[in-house]
Amino acid sequence: MPIIFTSGERVDSYDRVAGLMLGAEDYLVKPFDPDELLARVRRSLGRTSERATTESEAAELMDALTRREREVLSLLAAGRSSKQIARELVISPRTLGTHVQHILKKLGVHSRTQAVAIANHAGLVAGGGDATVLRLARRAR
C-alpha cells in the first residue's frame, strides 16, 4: 500500500527525508495542485502493482529468515510494540533492532509495514493481516 505524506507544517528537507525513510512513497508539501497529487497517486499505484509480491514469492522470501526472525516478524504483524517484543522474546531492544534490520534486508524492504505485508502474503499472519498493516501505517504517521 503506497503512503504519500502531505504536510503544511513539516516542510523542511529533514522532515521530507524522515518521511521517505519511514517508508513513504512520496512527500508533498502544501499547498499543492490537486492534479499533482493525482499524478503522484497514480504513479505510486503503478509502482505498487509492479512490485506486488505473490504468495509464492513471499513464501520464498520468508524462507530466507531464521526462526527467530520469523518470530519477531510475527509479533510485529500482531501489532506488538518493540518493548513488548523484546520482553516476550527475552532479548534486549538493541538485539531486537538488529533482528528487524536483518528482516528488512532479507525481504528487500524499507519499512516494518512492508515486511508485515510480505508476511501477510506468505501466510505468516494469522488473520487480520490487512488490519495490522493499516494499524502499522497509522502508527508511522
Q: Give the overall average pLDDT.
A: 81
The helix tally amounts to: 8
How many structural domains in the coordinates?
Answer: 2
Distance between the termini: 14 Å
Helical content class: 55-70%
| Biggest β-sheet strands, sense, barrel | 2 strands, parallel
The CATH topology of the largest domain, please? Rossmann fold
Q: How many DSSP-defined strands?
A: 2
CATH class of the largest domain: Alpha Beta
Rg: 16 Å
Strand order of the largest sheet: 1-2
Tell me the series of helices and strands, N- to C-terminal: EHEHHHHHHH
Structural class: mainly alpha
Architecture (CATH level 2) name of the largest domain: 3-Layer(aba) Sandwich
Strand content: 5-15%
- Low-confidence sequence ranges: 127-141
What is the assigned CATH homologous superfamily of the largest domain? Response regulator
Topology:
Blueprint: E1 4-7, H1 13-21, E2 26-29, H2 34-51, H3 55-63, H4 67-77, H5 82-89, H6 93-107, H7 112-122, H8 129-140
Summarize the structure.
By secondary structure, the chain is mainly alpha-helical.
Structure overview:
The protein is mainly alpha-helical and 141 residues long. It folds into two domains: 4-51, Response regulator (Rossmann fold); 55-140, Response regulator (Rossmann fold), CATH 3.40.50. It is 66% helix and 6% strand. The chain is built from eight helices and two strands, in the order E-H-E-H-H-H-H-H-H-H. The protein has a two-stranded parallel sheet.
